[in-house]
């Protein structure tokens, strides 16, 4: 019986909820040996990027390669993308792409703290190479490689327009060939998963068993079953049961007296009234005995959402066919029995003119639906009813009630959008008008992000493949007083200033070379500008990485250089006031959680400290910066001092340089040996193109984040071994911060940008909130991709950013 929409959820919760949850995990062996595990958790799809591709910018071709494989897989012979790994692609429920117009990689990191949902929901992040064409159009119109023929079909048949059945959930489950009824009976594992009563499972001890045969054949008889229930003080109980034979003849139609007092007869759904049950004395046990007597050993019971009927009957039968699982939909949704009977059987049941359902009529309808499916075969069922039942078809059908267009024949091209439609997948585009030749039913134009999100959320089913365009940020830039290129130029300048420190005063005659030699021990230095206009000698030092500037402030501030106590500080202006908040957020970034930043000190650095600084760096300051407890420091000291087979604290490498892969490999080996004491080292990450012949800094990637905490707690020991460490702040896909910005701060238009900063922050906050709401409403196991397309201008190219994540399973209600 199909549960009524208004009370079906309550009924499911009341029917032995605890025991039915246990049935997912346990079953009893036939020999009665006890409970054993019957179902292993299914691995979920996930996406990851190969390490060698992390710092390589992603192109539109790379993106379409991933999207095509995610949506089509190997059914048509598509190969896995070479630059990333998408595991368990067949378990994906859909693909959703969001294009955020106007945003660049620099914009994201400028407003990094504000993009709370965007950085928290996505564990994979890559730079994106901007394109001059419309990105949504490029996704839909890209060519799919030559498709293989469909399984079990000749090359002539494979070009038939009914290719739409190839990727349908029905054919993915049952194939395309016509088979006997045994191909559609539920296995014991499927029955446990769908919460059918199964013999020996906890919660079903008092259920009667029909004593069915161990196996059935394709010639076994089918019996239709349907029940009606009422609500009692003990939950839902049986009030009427109907059983029909293979010929549709009614074998049993009895009213049943519930054992417990009735709270609600549910007359509008069951048709049962108090007057009807008043003279009834038939009990549940009597009805069970009648059904067991009527059913032969090899009988196959047929029903719609049959598990509810069997639980109400307290009856166990091992061979069942559920029509709600034959006529499948995506994401576990089910057709109502009334809808299937109307479209497939051309019959009106559960009429609004009649009070309640007729269980005999429903049992016959379920029986005939199963017989039709078995006789016709999955492929023919889809070809005949694909448009009117599933809404995806040989012709473009209206997917939304408010859209109206004339159906047109699907083209036979290898465009991605056309291939998706021919494979039976629903395709949708929502956003501003784009140069994509989709049918109007699949393409909806909206003027605001709010309308796009609202329209997508109100769809009754989530499209298999969808592209959404958010344009609020681009609209904001276009409406602002300053030019878009000027805006991005100033944003990059702000990011560059995050890596700048001011230092001084230095002794007279202190050269730029001396300053570089002093500050390079904290990380790679990009540029040094000596400030001679001041009363005393100062310098502006720009690091390539944010970690270098952070270490410089914490370790070199207050050092004595030839009698001058130098002060190292950040630029003092409004944009730097929230830098501490940004740094804390970067430390908590999932991309940085397993990474440790390391700078090796050269032998000459010791001499420099001895002669110019007068003392070693303040390790206490480093500990405070890393947020560590004093008790952690020195906990691993005895072990860490024994490196390379010696016991002294000075027995580590003194090269101060990290080799790329050379014949000896000594530097990387020493790094693994030193830092391997804190935990398993997964990888040593060296700069792609270090300045000079060898790099002085590197990233240590541990297997767990706990190893990073332990290493930071031993920073004093590591300094004795000539290593300076701090938390990673730079995401792995970035080689440096704002590499394209070379203009000085304070450029023309600064006041205009200052005036619009508050408005920009508000637009970004709303945008991030909508991206978070969209991610939450996606079905579980959906591949979600967010693309910040970047910008191409006459002077420079601003790279974009691509976020990728497969939404994990959750209890949140989706489409």
Q: How would you explain this protein's 3D organization?
A:
- By secondary structure, the protein is an alpha+beta fold.
- The N terminus and C terminus are likely disordered.
- The protein is built from 31 helices and 31 strands.
- The longest helix is centred in the last third of the chain and has 28 residues.
- It has a 7-stranded mixed sheet, with helices on both faces.
- The chain folds into 3 domains: 221 residues, 2-Layer Sandwich (Nucleotidyltransferase, domain 5), CATH 3.30.420.10; 264 residues, 3-Layer(aba) Sandwich (Alkaline Phosphatase, subunit A), CATH 3.40.720; 229 residues, Alpha-Beta Plaits (2-Layer Sandwich).
What is the subunit organization of this protein? single chain
| Structure classification | alpha+beta
For the largest beta-sheet, the strand count, sense and barrel status come to: 7 strands, mixed
Spatial order of the strands in the main sheet? 6-31-28-5-17-15-16
Which class of the largest domain in CATH terms?
Alpha Beta
CATH architecture level-2 label of the largest domain: 3-Layer(aba) Sandwich
The rounded Rg comes to 34 Å
Number of strands: 31
Low-confidence stretches: 2-39, 148-162, 393-411, 606-655, 660-666, 740-753, 811-815
Q: How many separate helices?
A: 31
Shape: elongated
CATH topology value of the largest domain? Alkaline Phosphatase, subunit A
Fraction of residues in helix: 25-40%
């Amino acid at each position: 019986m199909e549960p009524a929409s208004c009370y079906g959820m309550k009924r499911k919760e009341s029917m032995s909820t605890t025991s039915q949850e246990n049935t997912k995990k346990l079953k009893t062996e036939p020999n009665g040996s006890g409970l054993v595990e019957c179902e292993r958790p299914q691995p979920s799809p996930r996406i990851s990027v190969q390490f060698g591709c992390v710092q390589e910018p992603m192109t539109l071709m790379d993106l379409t390669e991933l999207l095509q494989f995610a949506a089509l897989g190997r059914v048509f012979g598509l190969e896995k993308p070479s630059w990333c790994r998408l595991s368990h692609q067949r378990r994906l429920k859909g693909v959703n792409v969001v294009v955020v117009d106007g945003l660049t990689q620099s914009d994201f990191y400028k407003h990094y703290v504000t993009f709370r949902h965007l950085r928290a929901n996505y564990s994979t992040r890559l730079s994106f190479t901007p394109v001059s064409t419309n990105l949504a159009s490029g996704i839909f119109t890209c060519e799919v490689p030559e498709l293989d023929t469909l399984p079990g079909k000749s090359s002539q048949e494979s070009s038939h327009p009914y290719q739409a059945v190839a990727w349908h959930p029905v054919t993915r489950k049952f194939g395309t060939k016509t088979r006997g009824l045994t191909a559609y009976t539920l296995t014991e594992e499927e029955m446990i998963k769908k919460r059918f009563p199964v013999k020996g499972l906890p919660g079903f001890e008092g259920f009667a068993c029909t004593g069915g045969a161990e196996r059935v054949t394709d010639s076994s008889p089918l019996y239709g079953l349907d029940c009606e229930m009422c609500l009692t003080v003990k939950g839902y109980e049986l009030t009427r049961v109907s059983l029909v034979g293979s010929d549709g003849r009614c074998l049993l139609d009895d009213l049943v007296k519930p054992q417990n007092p009735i709270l609600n007869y549910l007359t509008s759904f069951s048709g049962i009234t108090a007057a009807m049950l008043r003279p009834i004395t038939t009990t549940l046990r009597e009805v069970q005995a009648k059904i067991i007597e009527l059913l032969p050993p090899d009988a196959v019971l047929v029903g719609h959402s049959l598990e509810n009927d069997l639980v109400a009957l307290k009856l166990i039968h091992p061979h069942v066919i559920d029509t709600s699982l034959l006529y499948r939909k995506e994401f576990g949704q089910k057709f109502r029995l009334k809808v299937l009977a109307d479209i497939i059987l051309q019959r009106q049941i559960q009429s609004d003119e009649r009070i309640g359902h007729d269980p005999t009529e429903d049992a016959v309808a379920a029986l005939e639906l199963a017989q039709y499916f078995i006789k016709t075969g999955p492929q023919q069922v889809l070809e005949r009813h694909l448009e009117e039942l599933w809404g995806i078809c040989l012709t473009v059908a209206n997917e939304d009630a408010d859209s109206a267009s004339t159906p047109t024949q699907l083209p036979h091209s290898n465009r991605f959008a056309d291939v998706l439609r021919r494979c039976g997948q629903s395709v949708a585009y929502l956003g501003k008008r784009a140069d994509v030749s989709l049918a109007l039913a699949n393409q909806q134009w909206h003027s605001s992000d709010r309308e796009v999100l609202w329209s997508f959320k109100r769809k009754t089913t989530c499209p298999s493949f969808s592209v959404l365009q958010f344009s609020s940020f681009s609209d904001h830039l276009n409406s602002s007083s300053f030019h878009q290129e000027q805006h991005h130029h100033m944003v990059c300048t702000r990011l560059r200033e995050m890596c700048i420190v001011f230092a001084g005063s230095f002794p007279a005659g202190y050269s730029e070379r001396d300053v570089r030699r002093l500050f390079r021990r904290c990380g790679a230095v990009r540029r040094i500008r000596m400030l001679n206009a001041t009363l005393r000698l100062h310098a502006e030092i720009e690091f390539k990485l944010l970690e270098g500037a952070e270490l410089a402030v914490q370790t070199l501030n207050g050092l004595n250089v030839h009698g001058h106590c130098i002060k190292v500080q950040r630029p003092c202006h409004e944009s730097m006031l929230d830098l501490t908040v940004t740094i804390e957020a970067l430390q908590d970034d999932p991309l940085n959680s397993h990474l440790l930043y390391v700078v090796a000190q050269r032998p000459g650095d010791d001499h420099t400290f001895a002669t110019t600084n007068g003392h070693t760096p303040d390790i206490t300051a480093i500990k405070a910066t890393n947020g560590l407890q004093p008790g952690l420091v020195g906990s691993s000291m005895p072990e860490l001092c024994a490196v390379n087979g010696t016991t002294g604290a000075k027995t580590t490498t003194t090269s101060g340089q990290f080799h790329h892969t050379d014949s000896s490999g000594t530097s990387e080996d020493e790094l693994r040996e030193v830092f391997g004491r804190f935990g398993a080292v997964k990888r040593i990450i060296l700069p792609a193109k270090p300045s000079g012949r060898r790099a002085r800094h590197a990233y240590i990637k541990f297997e767990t984040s706990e190893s990073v905490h332990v290493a930071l707690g031993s920073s004093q020991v590591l300094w004795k071994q000539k290593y300076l460490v701090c938390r990673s702040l730079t995401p792995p896909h970035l080689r440096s911060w704002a590499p394209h910005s070379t203009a000085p701060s304070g450029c023309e238009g600064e006041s205009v940008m200052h005036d619009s900063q508050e408005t920009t922050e508000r637009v970004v906050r709303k945008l991030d909130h909508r991206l978070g709401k969209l991610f939450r409403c996606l079905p579980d196991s959906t591949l979600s991709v967010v693309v910040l397309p970047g910008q191409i201008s006459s002077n420079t190219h601003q790279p974009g950013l691509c976020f990728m994540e497969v939404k994990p399973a959750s209890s949140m209600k989706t489409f």
